[in-house]
Predict the 3D structure of the following.
Amino acid sequence: MGAPHDAPDMGQLVEAVREWLERDVMPGTEGRLSFHARVAANMLKIVERELAVAPEHEARHGERLATLGVSDDTELAAAIRTGALDHRIEEVRAVVRDSVLDKLAVANPRYVQ
Amino acid sequence: MPSAPAPETSTELRVELASILGAEHIDDLTRLSGGASRETWRFRADGRPLVVQRQRGGDERDMSVEARVLRAVTASGAPLAELVASGVGASGASYIVSAAVEGETIARKILRDDRFASAREHLPAQLGEALARIHTIDPDGIDGVVDVDQLELYRVVLDEFGAPHPAFELAFRWLEDHRPPPTRRTLVHGDFRLGNVMVDEHGLRAVLDWELVHAGDPMEDLGWLCVRAWRFGGQGPVAGLGRYEQLFEAYEAESGLRVDPEVVHWWEVLGTLKWGIMCIGQAETHLSGRARSHELAAIGRRVCENEYDLFLALEGRW
């Protein structure tokens, strides 16, 4: 993956920076700076998770939207707003719910009960 | 987090505060928070601990309105930091000076630290009583208090971001279809939750952060207090530490009015949607360059937490 580029790949580069933030910066600082280092480390975790699943999530999202006859979230949002998909509203809710769960799996997997 | 003030700002402010308060000594001037237009400082005037909030330029949230609101709230008996002075200083910045109240505002500490164990037992009822007192205030008696339909406002805000979210559209549809008739029209705090109240070992000391005060349905404040984001990981629906019944019973006892849980639930759903839209706004503040900050950027990826919370809040109610 990532030819012609050398190792480390994108995920490994981000992982290395995240480990440094967690190992050295967070314990070596206090107050606002330490908190901001934690925020930064969490952001890099999001990037690591997204790099791992992005192609799968994108394909899955496209398939979900296709079942409703829309091509992206903008079209789906408009259809919900105008009522154009009201006759299939339970399917719409299931599609939206599945997309939200995919977003959370990347942004904050622990949030899901 | 306190930070060292720039020397010129600090000197200018010291002179201004001495003049406003007729004080000889202004000491221990420490900046507590600061945004693009509004900042908060802590200091001592001839030994007395005080807090000043000041605002530069013509912000739409006029501090003179806030000062009039604080006077009305003082009369209502809701716990408040004593208002010491307000007006427009020689620098052109408007200001409000209040007594400094000791305690904690950070929600995670209030929810988890041993020293607040007793406070946590009392807070749901104390928050309900404070809201009941705030809601005795007639907003029409205070010049300049705005009255904006919250549902329409956030429809416009989301559309202006140009970031369509199907989950938010589902929520808008539900809110429009299930909107309850207004209960009453009172003063509404607008951001009543942990983080915006001062708490000590005994519980609620003062209601802070009145920037979003407006006229409207008082049930908005009860719903907002129960939004899942404002539970900060705590278990109880009321501010992460209490049951709905604790809040409603205290509110009813103080106000003599019945609370309809279904109406509060509608406002909780709207509050969840509002905070989701505000998260888009926080990321936008970074992305547009108005304030570059990785902390603001990260909040953009919290939008889906609110989408998830909307599904939780509407489960079995669609």
